[in-house]
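[Automated response] Your request has been received and processed.

Submitted sequence:
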Amino acid sequence: MKKLLTIVVPVYNRVERLHGVLDALFVALQRSAVVRLLLVDNGSTDGSLEACEAFVRRCEEEAIDAHLLCEPKRGASAARNTGLAATETEWVYFFDSDDLLSDNFCEQVVGWIDSYGSQLDMIAFPVLQEVNGRLQVKPHVATERPQAQILLHGSLCTVSMAFRTAWLRRVGGWDERLTTWDDWELGVRALLARPRLRWFTERAFHHVFVHSESQTGASFSQTLAPIITAMEVVLSDIENAATTVEEVSVCRLALYYRSCIMSGKLVSEGSREGQSAFRQFALLSLPSPSWRQRLMGKFLEAYTAHGGHGAWRIILRFLV
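Generated structure:
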């Protein structure tokens, strides 16, 4: 039977969480014979590799198409690109080794591909995330506008988007320089490439956990340098995009406002160093903001610094 979709899961030292993750994958894969799974171990030293080997043997006994690859170059993006290079199906999807896949997800995506796949380059959908014990729909904006992804980190996240394999390779896959916010950057770069994208918003999928061991960490100040690196890459993506002058201007302004919001978040965390770094990056994104833009930036910073939530919603309406 022809396979339609490959799920790529990078694994690095997740043995305490991995068994539940693999059990959920097993249930989902049992329900769709046209889906292939690629686990990519990224140099685990805690027993994760052995757990993956045992899982692949279990899948073989049930005629489930699962394979294990190894990528010694450290980094989730490197592991994902190894999986992308080994993908032979028309569509590819990336999942994380500390989240739980919905049991009917494979069936749903295969149905979308059967119905609309020939007309699309990307598929996107909402996901459920647990924060402080509460499960809720992760904030997102169902749009093709890159400025929305720039303003709202994670509107398109790793587990909320699937790609036509050849198209993702054409736009460059995952950026292996990034150790955090790599899915944010890929989402921006993908939208700047003007994909044929369809959002399916009828329901949210998965159980995504936000915890101290996540890539972003417990606070922004802990990962300040790699976040700034990701923002620098996005600025380069914007500058190099084959798009209109107007869209480039809007995206640079969105990145300016995103920097102001991040400056406020670092103030709330007590990091003056972080505030200064994001203020400097704001001016790198938009060297000569108008007085109105500066005023709005200061408002967004102050609003966020004092505990305000959803600053991106305030500004997005102005960036059509």
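Summary generated for your ticket: The radius of gyration is 20 Å. Residues 5-209 form a domain with the Spore Coat Polysaccharide Biosynthesis Protein SpsA; Chain A fold (CATH 3.90.550.10).
If you did not submit this request, please reply to this message.
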